[in-house]
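Allow me, if you will, to draw on your knowledge of protein folds for a short while. Thank you for your consideration; the sequence and its tokens are set out here:
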Amino acid sequence: PKEIINTCHSATDAGVEMYFNFDVLDTSNEDEDCHPVLGGAVYTSTDGGSGWNSHTATVIGDPGYDSTYEASFTNPASGNVQYYYKVWTDSTVSCWLPNNSSNTFPAPNNKLVQICGDPTGDQDAIILPWDNGSRSYSCTDLVDFWVGYSSSNLFYKMTVAGGGFPYSHTEHVSTGLASWCPNSEVDLDVFHIYTFPIINPNAPYPDSIFYAAIYGDVSISFVVVTIHIWTGVYKVHKLDSTATWMDYLSVYTRLGDIESNVSGNTLSLRVPLSVLTSDSDFGTLDPDLPLATGCGIGTACAFPKDPGCFIYGLCDTFAYSISDGSPSVGMYLKTGEYTVTPSSPPVLSAYGGSAAGGKGVTFYYCTYTDPEGDIPVVHEVVIDGTPYTLDSYGDHTYSDGANFYLVLSDIGSRPTFHFHFSDGANDVTTEDLSLGIEENIPSSGFTLGSAYPNPFNAAVTIPVDAYEDFDNITIDIYNINGEKIRTLHSGYLSRGFHHFIWNGKDASSGLYFVRVRAAGDEQLSRIMLMK
């Protein structure tokens, strides 16, 4: 699933238009596996979480806001506002969640986030043995899926097309033996298992061990061993292609109980977080990192390849089908909340403008700092009465200062200008300024900006400001031994501000170097990866 980062909002004053921003990144997948975002939303509640309103979030798209989504709503006159974020692709959903602080079970819809409304009739069938065709069941046809949390529990709710949640069905099938054989026809148990995987990105072995809440009661005698899986929390060891059937007998380790409730075609679960966190391989929970989860419905049966005419053979063959499932989910165990209250005005500093001698461009720059970390809903420079939107360097942490800039073609005059910012409730402007002439613009024609965040543990953004078009510019990552490990860009780069992202997924913790080379010049900076 995508990652939701850099979450922030504008001033919280009564009656103002509130703006919510969040960035969307994908550092878990290779480029070819990254699916485009199809939609985003911010959900707000002004009645303590009893009811929620959806506000569509759209990508801003300006420089420094390329992956930033924004939604807005009108702030109430008083009280508290709760909120959460949600973004989705064709196969994933990432979201914050409402807090079911009272641990109500089954959890009501206003304490859950809907992940999907799945079409009916799309479940896969299981192939029965001995040429008996396939079977599909309405109880394995997912139609709705919700998730939620509290400080002590995870909550799941699943709805199927029909038939409730039976543990199994019995199929009367032909074995293909002669009709006079006692075993020419047998009853075959077909089991259903409802699984909710849980993967903690902080786990020490996330690629080989995951966890799951399971609803069902599967008891299969396989050769001389009985496999019994029943409702509870399980630790699951992933197997590779070399695994034998004996390996599968020790895949599941039951860790503890969960609560379940079946009401018609809806199954609700309450999963104690303590059962998960008490296992040393689960890792620590971090609300800023998403738990990967979802749901899947499996159907399975075991049978002998040779049923035997008089004595039914030992089960040595296993059939399994993933009948239906939800998108992958990245759920953050957190809820946003603020009190409607007057906000402090932002502060502008380190501002000015200069014409780059011989470069044909004019630079305007300003640093915006907000005591509450409120976003600037207006960020502009007003030149001879005409406003121009300032671009961001991509730093969306506003409490410690964020830099904004604008690059314009040299207008060939000495205009008067000032900077104007607003946090949504407080407008601040600078005094009128005159354009100066700056002679020390780097002769290389580009600047390698400060990478952020630095140190980083997921992805780092590397800003590069090009003062002219380059036919060939390279941006490389080197390790401490001077070995090039990644090329972020090689080739043409247009004039303007650009940012490049390195996820460091295949690199180990340590010091790395960013080197930018163009037209015989180079610039170098250091970044620190901490996993």
